[in-house]
């Protein structure tokens, strides 16, 4: 009887030992493969190293492995195919996805400069690149409520993304709350965030774009002692950051214009704040439509100086809600 019991006990131990051995072997294989790929990546030439670094947020594990294991002679073709697979409209010359992705990297680097690394490599930069500017961005400075200070909350619709600066030194980390009473919510939150990032690896949403504007000048009257015209500035509704106020989305655009002659002397200036209030349903319909601002241009002084050389018209637009600003310059001749 005792022998049978011993045999039974031994038979139960064998599968456990075998499972442990298999798990250990699997870990060693995975670890070995990861180290091998890491060493290959370290030896990449500057062009390929820059590519694998910049696409880290959208490249899949399988794509990364294939790219690193390819001979150098085939890596250029892989990069071309990589972007082709993500091109939303292959009938156009431009790859809108690629342009948007690198524009977001550039913009993230400009926006998040307070941390000890390039802005696009920060947590805020990663979320900004993957999902674009949020519809609402709440900032809580150092002097505020001690339970909410030094943090930012970004809203994509009703979905919040929280960043915490634990030392109030300008270095923000993506927050994963670990409150017992909220555990299920937190798991769901991170699950949804992970799913959203996975979707971004396959396709890049075009709904969220960068703050940009188009502008033009129309001269209606050009006389010896007077010039009249209109400066038109257009910004896609979908590029503007808003703040939720009740059932409305609101923001203010500050517009500053300066006309300077060829020597840099100020000839004309203009400044105005444009308030925008729009409902969310209306915003969805107007994503690709333009919010238009028409500014009167009247010049009656120093016209002779403007006729002598290359003048420059400077524009600065600030989106108060998102804290974004953009400057542009165009040549102005009489």
Automatic annotation (TrEMBL):
<feature type="domain" description="GWxTD">
    <location>
        <begin position="50"/>
        <end position="190"/>
    </location>
</feature>
<dbReference type="InterPro" id="IPR030959">
    <property type="entry name" value="GWxTD_dom"/>
</dbReference>
<dbReference type="Pfam" id="PF20094">
    <property type="entry name" value="GWxTD_dom"/>
</dbReference>
<protein>
    <recommendedName>
        <fullName>GWxTD domain-containing protein</fullName>
    </recommendedName>
</protein>
């Amino acid at each position: 009887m005792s022998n049978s019991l011993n045999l039974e006990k031994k038979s139960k131990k064998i599968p456990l030992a075998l499972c442990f051995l298999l798990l250990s072997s699997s870990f060693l294989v995975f670890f070995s493969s990861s180290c091998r790929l890491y060493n290959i990546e370290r030896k990449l030439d500057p062009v390929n190293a820059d590519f694998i670094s910049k696409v880290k947020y959208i490249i899949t594990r399988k794509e990364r492995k294939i790219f690193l294991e390819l001979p150098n002679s085939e890596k250029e073709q892989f990069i071309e195919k990589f972007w082709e697979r993500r091109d939303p409209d292959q009938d156009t010359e431009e790859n809108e996805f690629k342009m948007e992705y690198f524009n977001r990297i550039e913009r993230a680097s400009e926006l998040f400069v307070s941390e000890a690394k390039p802005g696009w490599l920060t947590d805020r930069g990663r979320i900004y690149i993957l999902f674009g500017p949020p519809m609402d961005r709440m900032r809580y400075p150092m002097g505020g409520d001690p339970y909410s200070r030094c943090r930012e909350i970004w809203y994509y619709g009703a979905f919040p993304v929280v960043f915490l600066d634990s030392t109030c030194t300008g270095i923000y980390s993506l927050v994963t709350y670990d409150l017992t009473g909220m555990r299920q919510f937190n798991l769901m939150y991170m699950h949804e965030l992970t799913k959203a990032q996975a979707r971004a690896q396959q396709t890049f949403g075009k709904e969220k774009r960068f703050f940009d504007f188009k502008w033009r000048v129309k001269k209606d009257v050009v006389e010896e002692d007077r010039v009249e015209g209109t400066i038109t500035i257009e910004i896609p509704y979908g590029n503007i950051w808003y703040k939720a106020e009740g059932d409305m989305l609101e923001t203010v655009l500050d517009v500053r214009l300066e006309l300077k002659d060829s020597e840099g002397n100020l000839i004309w200036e203009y400044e105005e704040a444009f308030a925008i209030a729009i409902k969310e349903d209306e915003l969805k319909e107007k994503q690709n439509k333009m919010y238009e601002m028409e500014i009167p241009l009247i010049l009656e002084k120093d016209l002779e100086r403007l006729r002598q050389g290359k003048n420059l018209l400077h524009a600065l637009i600030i989106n108060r809600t998102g804290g974004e600003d953009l400057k542009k310059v165009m040549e102005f001749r009489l």
